[in-house]
Amino acid sequence: MNVEKLLHQIDNKEYTVGIIGLGYVGLPLMWTFHENEMPVIGYDIDQNKVDCINNGVSYIKHLGEDKMQKLAKSDICDATTDFNRLQEADALLMCVPTPLDVHREPDMRFVEQTTQTISKHLRKGQLVILESTTWPGTTDELIIKILEENSGLTAGEDFYVAYSPEREDPGNQNFNTSKIPKVVGGHGKDALKLACALYDTAIVKTIPVSDTKTAEAVKLTENIFRSVNIALVNELKVVFSEMGIDVHEVLDAADTKPFGFMKFTPGPGLGGHCIPIDPFYLTWKARQFEQNTRFIELAGEVNTSMPKYVVQRTIEALNSQKKSVNGSNILLIGLAYKPDVDDDRESPTYKLMDYYNELGANVEYYDPFVPVIKESREHSHWAGKKSINWTEEIIKKFDVVVISTNHSEINYLELSNWSGLIVDTRNAMKHVEDKNGHVWKA
Ligand SMILES: NC(=O)c1ccc[n+]([C@@H]2O[C@H](COP(=O)([O-])OP(=O)(O)OC[C@H]3O[C@@H](n4cnc5c(N)ncnc54)[C@H](O)[C@@H]3O)[C@@H](O)[C@H]2O)c1
């Protein structure tokens, strides 16, 4: 294939970007290419998401109606569930889920299905890029194998393959997709050149690395780093609490050191689609090389023990008022796994709800971003439950309020005035004077 011709097409924006999987990663990526006047087609098996895009309806909070309206009205943007149209795209970027299965091993179903579908439509000159987080070796050992076997074409000669991890941080006001440098690993020099040229049209900077498995390892390293450091501050929280030391004050003060320290914040446990899951992709692959990942497993152990610690603190807090969890009305604040987003995947709040429920409490939640709990594989028993209304009369009815996620729009002063007992897992009450000593840190 004439790579120079393809590079010329990219430069002139006569090159169509196909994005497969239009969720938290794929939709902002679609917007980013569109914003930079690159023709883009989005593909998803979810008809509802495709209809939303084509009708200008937002389904991810931080990508609001105005941007969705622009996508819907655009002549260079389209969304479809018709995978026969994969041939229309010059590049195909896969942004599909990579969860863990019931045995906590990589669940590659979505990546495999998508690759199988691409392989049926693959044409010469196309560039296929995997963006999903995954174990090192996936692109070379799994993606290329399926594509070559089913299409009869050869990677690096007839078509091109690269891996570029997504570093999207939903809800982060300072860094949207276009502002986060993109690490790129190519299967061969031409694939690397094409992939970098493509991202250069829309993203601030590309960081080329030696090969696809290095790029895959970069993403896992970033998330393992977070998981291990969060575990460390969670452990310190428990230890310092026993010593009568406030871990948040310690961390804020330590953070004044201008070098050699990076602040992480303790909480009720890990949540989201990345940090609780991704490290175990490496653990799984490392076994093939007879290697242990002790830091990863220890961090997982500490972080998953946090919801039980919060329950223990809640028991102590209720006990101080001569009450038991059994029969208490408990309100959880924040169902999303982090502040100011509507993503409740893997949220530790669900764990807390389950534990309190098992202990005989009546559990309710408040979250302005998650008005009702949707059907899901893990939390089907909570599906349909609605967020309570934020009124003094309702809040006063609860024996204890547990702050699990510190959304910024919550009025913590009102909460302090209305609630007789608060368990704060996020230091959310730091700016509110605790006049009655009714705030317990956990
Ligand atoms: N959410 C984040 O903040 C984030 C950040 C960095 C990396 N990642 C990684 O990016 C990948 C995608 O995550 P996400 O959060 O966007 O997931 P998501 O669940 O929000 O979106 C995935 C989309 O893929 C679609 N899909 C599933 N199977 C498909 C198929 N066979 N063909 C076409 N579409 C299909 C789903 O319908 C859904 O719309 C994962 O590997 C994740 O680990 C996520």
Verbal overview:
The longest helix is centred in the middle third of the chain and has 31 residues. This protein has 2 domains: 210 residues, NAD(P)-binding Rossmann-like Domain (Rossmann fold); 175 residues, NAD(P)-binding Rossmann-like Domain (Rossmann fold), CATH 3.40.50.720. It is of the alpha/beta class. It contains 14 helices and 13 strands. It is elongated and about 75 Å long. α1 packs parallel to α7 and α5 runs parallel beside α6. The protein binds nicotinamide-adenine-dinucleotide (NAD). The site of nicotinamide-adenine-dinucleotide has 27 residues, from α5. The site of nicotinamide-adenine-dinucleotide (NAD) has 27 residues, from α5.
CATH superfamily of the largest domain: NAD(P)-binding Rossmann-like Domain
Structural class, please? alpha/beta
**Small-molecule binders:** nicotinamide-adenine-dinucleotide
Strand order of the largest sheet: 3-2-1-4-5-6-7-8
Helix percent reads 25-40%
The parts where pLDDT drops under 50 for at least 5 residues are none
Q: Helical element count? A: 14
Question: What Rg do the Cα atoms give?
Answer: 24 Å
Strand content: 5-15%
What is the string of SSEs from the N terminus onward?
HEHEHHEEHEHEEHEHHHHEHEHEHEE
